[in-house]
């Protein structure tokens, strides 16, 4: 196995790998970032921020306890293709152990590496301010601006919260029949219903680029965009998606620490707590 026990744990959990259900894989990837560098420091900052949060979800009446094991950060070279292979192998190890991977990063390209580990039938739900559907960018085919397109080569995807793309990306997304819910349509009931119908009974992987949120609540990202979604909008979507589908993996990407202002890292850590709580609450409800 390529995996090593992490020295710093999310929520300061002391559960062993064998007894855990979820495994956090920190990926300090910052190779193709083209605007604001620093996402390689995101994973550690998310883990540190988690220690300031409670593990009890009052809305769901659920405590995230003895569920999450944290691994060491991956040791990546500066070669993006090699990095994708290391990520693929690491996520495959987690899946083969019967665990649910939670990846924290790090530039969004890591999602592509993770996608290689999953069966083709897994649906990828990508929350992102950007379509990330460029054929190539700055001379690279594998890069953060092509992430969604790369994942779509193997998996069906849905894009949510998009508010930045070019015409070529828009046309290619349309040709492929990909479901996309733009930021200005985030409250459109028919779009949500269509998405939920498609995902019903499916295995899903949820990928969150933190720039999907408004910069007022998530300023520490690699490529910020104004007029993002609010946390409650996101949580409403996640509740509905998890309720109709089976969550098999998730990631929180593009966190770029801003020093003392750690609001983005705190939000990222809270996302993990809330998504695990929602997943586990559904599991417990199905058992009763």
Automatic annotation (TrEMBL):
PROSITE patterns noted in UniProt: ARGINASE_1, ARGINASE_2
Alphabetical keyword list: Hydrolase, Manganese, Metal-binding
Alphabetical list of PANTHER family matching this protein: ARGINASE/AGMATINASE, GUANIDINO ACID HYDROLASE, MITOCHONDRIAL
Protein name per UniProt: Agmatinase
InterPro entries: Agmatinase-rel, Ureohydrolase, Ureohydrolase_dom_sf, Ureohydrolase_Mn_BS
Family, per entry: Belongs to the arginase family. Agmatinase subfamily.
Cofactor entry: Mn(2+)
Cofactor binding description: Binds 2 manganese ions per subunit.
Cross-referenced Pfam families: Arginase
SUPFAM superfamilies the record matches: Arginase/deacetylase
GO biological process: putrescine biosynthetic process from arginine, via agmatine
UniProt GO MF annotations: agmatinase activity; metal ion binding
Record carries keyword Hydrolase: yes
Chain positions recorded as Mn(2+) binding sites: 108, 128, 130, 132, 209, 211
């Amino acid at each position: 196995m390529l995996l090593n026990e992490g020295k710093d744990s999310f929520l300061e959990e002391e559960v062993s790998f064998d007894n855990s259900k979820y495994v956090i894989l920190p990926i300090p990837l910052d190779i193709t970032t083209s605007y604001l560098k620093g996402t390689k420091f995101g994973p550690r900052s998310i883990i540190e921020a988690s220690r300031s949060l409670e593990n009890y979800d009052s809305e769901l009446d659920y405590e995230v306890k003895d569920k999450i094991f944290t691994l060491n950060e991956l040791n990546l070279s500066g070669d993006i293709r090699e990095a994708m292979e290391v990520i693929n192998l690491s996520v495959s190890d987690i899946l083969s152990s019967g665990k649910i991977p939670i990846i924290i990063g790090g530039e969004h390209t890591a999602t592509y590496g993770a996608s290689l580990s999953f069966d083709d039938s897994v649906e990828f739900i990508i929350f992102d301010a950007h379509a990330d559907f460029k054929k190539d960018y700055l001379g690279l085919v594998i890069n953060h601006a092509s992430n969604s397109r790369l994942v779509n080569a193997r998996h069906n995807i849905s894009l949510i919260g998009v508010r930045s793309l070019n015409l070529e990306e828009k046309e290619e997304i349309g040709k492929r029949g990909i479901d996309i819910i733009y930021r200005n349509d985030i409250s459109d009931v028919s779009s949500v219903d269509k998405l939920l119908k498609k995902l019903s009974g499916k295995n899903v992987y949820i990928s969150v680029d933190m720039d999907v949120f408004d910069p007022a609540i998530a300023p520490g990202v690699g490529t910020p965009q104004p007029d993002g979604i609010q946390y409650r909008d996101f949580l409403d979507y996640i509740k509905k998606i998890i309720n109709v589908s089976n969550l098999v993996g998730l990631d929180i990407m593009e966190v770029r620490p801003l020093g003392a202002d750690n609001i983005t890292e705190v939000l990222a850590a809270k996302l993990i707590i809330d998504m695990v709580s929602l997943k586990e609450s559904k599991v417990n409800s199905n058992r009763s």
